[in-house]
What we know:
By secondary structure, this protein is of the alpha/beta class. The protein has 14 helices and 18 strands. It has 2 domains: 2-52 and 363-413, Urease, subunit C, domain 1; 56-355, TIM Barrel (Alpha-Beta Barrel).
Amino acid sequence: MQVLIRQAKILDKNSPFNNKVVDILIENGTIKDIAASIKAKAKQTIETEGLCVSLGWVDVLADYAEPGYEHKETIDNGLKTAAKGGFTHVLTAPNTNPAVSTKSGVEFALQKAKGNVVSLHPLGSISQDIEGKNLAEMLDMYSNGAIAFTDGWKPVQNPQLMLKALEYVKAFNGTLIQIPADSTLSSGGLMHEGIESVRLGMPGIPTLSETILLHRDIELLRYTGSKLHVTGVSSAEGVDMIRKAKKEGLNITCSVTPYHLTLTDKDLAGYSSMYKVMPPLRSEADRKALIKGVNDGAIDAIASHHRPQEWDAKAKEFEYASNGMNIQEAAFTIALQAIGAERLAACFTAARDVFGINDTNISKGAKADLTIFTARGSSSLNNMQSFSANNPYIGKELPGKVIGIINNGKIHLNK
C-alpha cells in the first residue's frame, strides 16, 4: 500500500505537525514522510478542498448484534459501516445472544474482526449474561482482549453489584462504562418529560432518571477510587454533575451521542419511532448545555450508540417500537451540525486516552492509523452500508464528508 495525502491539515495534539498543512506519504502502513510538499509519486493520491487528517476515530459504543441478532447487523458489515463513518476503532456492546460474559464471547468477536481495516475492541459485560445479579468473569475477559466493561443497553441498577464491579476492575486498572438511566424512573416513559410530552400526550421520562443514577455512580466512584466512563449523557444537570466530579479529581469521563447534540424532544412531533432512543431526546436547553459541555471539555468524547433495528422493530406504534438509531456511518456529518470540525476530531479521538488505544501519532515513522475528512461541502446519507435503516437523516444533506481511513496496513476510501 502506497498513499500520498496532499495538502491536509493535521489535527493531532501529539504531532509535531499539529495544525500545519502538509503532504503525507504512507507506505506499507507506516508514515514514511511528512513535509510541506512531497514530490514522490504514489499508487493512490488523496486530495480535496479543506482536507483534514486526524488520528483514527474511536467509537465508544456500537451494537453489531452478532451472535444472535444477525438480521440487525453482523460484525463484518458493522466494521464496513464503521469504515464508511471514519472510525478505525470500535468498542462493541456485549448485548448479544449469548451475551459477551466470558472469554469465549470476546475471542469470537476478535476472530470475526481479524484482518479488517477497522480494529474491533469487544466490551465485556459487567454482570453474568447481563442479568444484573452476579459479576461476570471480567478479569478472564480482560486477559483475552476485552477493553472495558458494561451491561450496555441495560445499565447496572443494583448499587451493590456496581460497587463490587468498580472495586474489582481496580486490580487491573479496568474501566466501567455506564449509560445513565434508572430503569424504575424511566419505566413506561416514551420521551423526555416536559412541555412536549404533555402536548403530545405521551408518558414522560424525567431528567431525574439520568441524574439519580449518575449521582449514585459518582458516589460509588468516589468511595472506590476506580474508573468510570458515562456514555449517552443527555441533560444539562448530568453534564454539570460530571463537570463537578472532574474538578474534584475523580477518574470520570463521558461521551455524548451525535443525535443528542442535534435533536430535541420537539422532533417527536410527528410521532416517528425513528426518534425513539434511550436516554431520550431532551429539551433545547439540554441540547445547548451538551454543546457547551463538548466545547469546554466537560464532555470528552462522541459515542455513536449505533443501534441497528430491523424494519418491523420500528414500523409500529411508538409505544411498542424499539429504541435506537442506526447512526455510525453518519456520526461525523450529523455532529458537525453542532460542533466545529477541530473540536469534533478531538472528541472522536479522545477515547484513545480513556481506553488506552493511544499507541501512535502523526509523525514520520509512526504507524498510520488515520481518519481523512473535510468539513467543506456536504454529503447525503444514501445507499447505507448498514443492514438496518432506522435513521431519520436518510436522504438529507449534511455538512462535510468522511473521505476514508487508513489502519492496520489497509485503506478504505468512500465513493
